[in-house]
Amino acid sequence: MSESRAISSHTEMDAEKFKEPFSTYHMLGGDDTHSYAQNSEYQKQLVVSAEELICKLIDKHLDIEKPSFDPNKTFRIADFGCSIGPNTFFAIENIIKGVENKYKSNIKNPRIPEYHVFFNDHIDNDFNTLFRNIPTSRKYFLAGVPGSFHGRLFPNTTLHFAHCSTALHWLSRIPKEVTEVNSTAFNKGRIHYGGAAKEVKDAYSTQYRKDMDSFLTARAQELVRGGLMVLVILGFPDGVPPSESSIGIGFNILGSCLEDMARMGKITEEQVDSFNLPFYYPSPSELKALIEENGSFTLERIESLISPMKIEKPNLNIIIKVCVSHLRAVIGGVIEEHFGNEIVEELFQLHMKKLDENPMMFDEKYRKEANYFLFLKQKSHL
């Protein structure tokens, strides 16, 4: 092979490495009424509730005697799926607090490293709002890293600590089988796998396995030996189908709203049948099996966090508004991309009306989802 062809081939391989073959889902940006920044209290409370566990497990598992964790070297942290704040800043503060406590506990050498924090999300994320709200009292240098966390984002052995909270239930893409009319997994009349045919659920599950394996493999390569990772993942206990939960009920009602709008001629039936939400909610046994099959990490701890969602009947009207606003902040962009922005306001107004008429999803017996806290350590032999 000539030198010029060799250079061309190498360039093509490099270009292939950095391709983005994933869908670019993102939260609603800005800081207005419908933004994620104004509608993410649920996620914030999960970050707050994880603080004690993070500090305790960092103290136990951060091996500051290893050369990779020399306090004279920069300690690098990445938050994957950071969105636009402010929750990502609370998460970083929790991690740095735990790391500092660990270094200070070293009687022989109680020095504290400098910190470099990377905020990651999809390329369409509103990084401008994120950077405008960076805490002025921060203890770290920072950078934004656009791209899907389902692939590589950093060079080998760059990071010491990885964090991802309430983002890993998002798939990298909708399984193609559920949108193909001639497929046995065609999800006609539904927008999610909850309550759908087994083939639909299997297609979602298969996609999730692929996505989690890609995520874990990428992070294992990016972390230093013995690097740590915290994941907070929304899922369901073993044996609990989403269709019997408030999440499943809410999605079914949202789907019925889209069908109503199709009957009114606002959108087409084909648009509704080809729309599916890119969420999969794993069980703890699934998560354990996926981590074990991947083989890159040891799972040091898994447990469910207390749900921040507490329903009080006297405040039901407020709760409905909060839930609809939250859902709009999370999937408003997905709705707009598929159906156009003309229907967004009417859709969520109709959704709110239907929830008010049928508030069963807010009954405590349907609050079956769980938020799983996982603490992982990169295997040192990698």
TrEMBL record:
Keywords: Magnesium, Metal-binding, Methyltransferase, Transferase
Pfam families, per the entry: Methyltransf_7
UniProt-recorded Gene Ontology molecular function terms: metal ion binding; methyltransferase activity
GO biological process, alphabetically ordered: methylation
Family listed: Belongs to the methyltransferase superfamily. Type-7 methyltransferase family.
Protein name per Swiss-Prot or TrEMBL: S-adenosylmethionine-dependent methyltransferase
Organism whose genome encodes this protein: Fraxinus pennsylvanica
